[in-house]
Amino acid sequence: MKKYLLLILFTCFFAFAQAQPFGSSALWFDDLNDYVSANSVSAAMSSQGAMTLEAWIYPESFETQDFVLTFHAAAPDYDNRILLGLKSGVLVAGYKTPSSLDISSYGTNTLPLNQWSHIAWTIAANGSSVVYLNGVIEIDTFTVDVGAWPESEGTFSIGQDYDGENTTDHFHGLIDEVRVWNVVRTQTEIQNNRSDVLSNPTGETNLVAYFTFDDTSSGTLTDESVNSNTGTLHFYDGGDGTPENAYQIASVTDLVYLSQHTGDWNKNFLQTANIDFGSDETVVDWNGDGIVGDAADANGFFPLGSSYPSTSKFTGNYDGQEYSISNLYVNRTGSYNGLFGYNDGATLKRIILLNALVNGGDYTALLVGNDINGIIESCLVSGTINGSNYIGGLVGQANNVSYNRCAANNITINAVSYIGGLIGNVNNTASNITNSYATGIINSGVSYVGGLIGNFWSPSAVTVNKCYASVSSGNKGFIGFASDYNNVSNSYWDVEVDGINGNSSGDTNYGAIGKNTAEMKNASTFTSWDFTEETGDWQIENDYYISYPYLQAFTYDAPGASPEINPIPGLATTPVTWTGATDSDWNTASNWNPAVVPTANVDATIPASGVTNFPVVNSATTAAVKNLTNNSTTNNAITVQAGGKLTVNGVYTAVNGAKIKVTGAQ
């Protein structure tokens, strides 16, 4: 199957700026790669001797060429063609045969932008043709070579032309009420019927195809005539949804389109670029209806998958390929909210969801509200969740799942019960959670609250291995509640972050071991974890910087980034102490322990004793430190030579009154 670089089409259900003279829905084309194919129309017309093409169009901009309805010969040459569209805003009708160049005829009136216009083209058996604009003759001196007639193996498209195998000259705006007839309609018939929806299309004997665009949620376009010439919407950025050729998601419009088309929720998806909804959710067309800021947009993104009907659950596969989705906004009051609302048997991989805000009722999380029989691997989320019950950073409720290398990083949760930093509730059947963590804050939790998991129902078949939590939850522990359960291994939680007056280092919680912050930032605590550089699951900073363990699969903020979107968990600088082991040069790393020259955000200490070489900032060099503590009893233990510069960004503390010796300009 040929691959096309395609973008998105949107079904539009709204009141247009100009009163729409027919049904209540239309199809929006974004001038990039949108089109509809209904090639069986070409086959049906190949044996006919005449035709009439009709459409209502609502152009939003004009390019050099914007085609509305086109017939082409079969691949690979697409040579024969009949084309109806616009050229710089003027109607154009054209054709080409294998033996001719492109031959076109043009109207004289420029169509108005952002208004509805009706266009029609009749072609008789002898090739004589007439083009109408709003029922009035626009072109009537144009003869079409019958050698350009549609072929049985040819193509019929709405919204584009072909240049070889590539789609081109895409229409920008709305198209509705496309009709293809196998007779020449009279001017009177066109005038009298153009503003009316056909009341009995299956009874129209000369009607080959009739597209009203009333429902495109399944990704197809219904032919309302008796002939069932179903159209296919070409959307996303490529692919066909199969495992071998997944639909490509590369933009906000791709993702919004997916949210509005439940018929695709059993397909395969591959994200191919970073996607950012922007910091202002009020300027996003969240439901893809072509209007920004209407009442429907206040609800934000529509989660992929819902509980009713059962066919609306997300059952497909989504591979984010480590591209990010930033600033997702979901603002709903019902259940099942997140990027995905309700999954059943879905596989999610390598999704990075940053700075998301999800507001909802029960079963709400950043990634999946409710997950049944699912696999989640190498996925990271950050952001804020406001919900009620069964609320998690990653997943609200999980049932019979397998999660590996997942992170809820720097999250904030405001909810009531069954709340976990990673998962709110794990329900009933066998599940495995490995190599995963949660960091952040849980507020307002009343019951069944845990740093990693809020609650287990029937937990005997659930295993948790090599996981940790550093979540401020008011002394709730690693798991909020799990009756008769002790199947956690090699897992830890930070008791200092968990609660000021809570657990202490060495305490256990359903098999997890409590550690203080210093222990949680020491690789020796995690004896069985794989910290192999590049190939292992985990990484930890234990030198110049210190941190909690973090997953190597993801890219984190650079140290000191502001604002923090995806920080390395628990990242802090290690205070350094002067040793003078090599010489007296302040800027020699081996003179410090650890062996790193301090910078403007690092605290440094000069010890009280045991130093032979005292630090010197040499001439023509600079040095910086955050807070500098001088414990030395030797005055002038620190020297700044002429032309040198030492900057203390915080506080200089001379414990024994020692001064800094300055031999020149500071």
UniProtKB/TrEMBL annotation:
MF annotations from Gene Ontology: hydrolase activity, hydrolyzing O-glycosyl compounds
Tell me where in this chain the LamG-like jellyroll fold domain is found.
49-188
An example Gene Ontology biological process: carbohydrate metabolic process
UniProt xrefs under Gene3D superfamilies? 2.160.20.110, 2.60.120.200
Indicate yes or no for the key word Lipoprotein.
Answer: no
UniProt keyword annotation of Amino-acid biosynthesis present: no
Q: Which UniProt keywords apply?
A: Disulfide bond, Signal
Look up the signal peptide feature and give its range.
1-19
Under InterPro entries, the record lists: ConA-like_dom_sf, LamG-like
Q: Which Pfam families match?
A: Laminin_G_3
Instruction: Specify the superkingdom.
Output: Bacteria
Protein name (record): LamG domain-containing protein
